[in-house]
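Preliminary data (for renewal application), iron/sulfur cluster complex.
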Amino acid sequence: MDRIKKMLLLHVPTSICNFRCMYCYIAQRPVHYQGLQADMKFSPEQVAYALRPERIGGLAYMNLCADGETLLTKNFDLYVRALVERGHYAEIVTNLTITPMLEKILSWPADLRARTEFKCSFHYLELKKHGMLDLFADNVHKIWDAGASASVEVTPHDELVPYVDELKEFSLKNFGAFPHFTIARDDRTQGIDYLTSLPMQEYDRIWGSFDSDFWRYKKSVFGVKQTKFCYAGMWTAHINLATGNAQSCYRGYPMGNVFENPDAPFPERPTGHCKLAHCYNAHALLTFGCIPGSTPTRFGDNIRNRKTTYTVEGSWLQPALLSFFNTKLEENNKLLTPSQQKYYLALNKLQDVYIKLRHAAGRVKRFIIKKIARS
Ligand code: SF4
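Predicted structure:
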């Protein structure tokens, strides 16, 4: 049975999207939807070689997500294929409306499809507005029929409330189950506020009615500061797929460029104490075990899978992929001793001081330059 050794979050800097969802995190950023293709500095073969199991210590769960619609990235299929051919498992985040790219991926050999999952972002109102609801459902079935995995996920938002009943009916009819639910955060306030104007009791009543383990888990950790030792950076990396620049997790420590010297050891340096107000992608990072012992919730069973009568196996995820998604980093990696943890915490503190000093020196330098220019 395959087991997870690393979790790699591959950020695809393509900023083109055919949708404009009102709750989109990207739209909350000062600069967004620039309409740019990712400018890939490395070929699919170079990327796959740099992330080969022999270098990173074993097999990885790889999440691929763009700054827009992921499947609009040029040659995207070639990059994912090269990675899956190395034995890794891929999760592609998509609005599932770009059928030509989807069909290219679904034409791969069966063993590669079996290790590929589509996280289908079910943007109900945008799909309805564009007359694409049936296309979305058809594409989910194409994935299942091809022996790949599809998980349907909704981002709850206040404008969707009047459509809850029809959303439930559509989902049961087309996916054999309700969709899973995440929790939308307000990125303008460091991501610690819910993106809703509903009273919390009402919010819970409406979105809790979809009986999603994903939603329940996310609710339990939303806004909760993680204080235990985190192995992000040692067991995980967040990598820019176009450049190879990496950091430990979404907003973690820099790890350098992991594509430039593919024969050098893969960098590993644990974050230790999390700097964020909360782990906003805890549903993946923590359920895969970045903080040992933090939750019994499993990414496969609880976050992505649902039972359905629409697949031969009776579930949204294929058995091999489901069992891989149920493994945890903490079960397949060595834990650091308390003194090793102390060493890394001290090293990270030193780095924090160094970064602060560098920023302060930069500010002083800019101030002096301004003064000289004015005098
Ligand atoms: S708790 Fe989450 S956000 Fe914080 S360092 Fe660990 S993985 Fe990153």
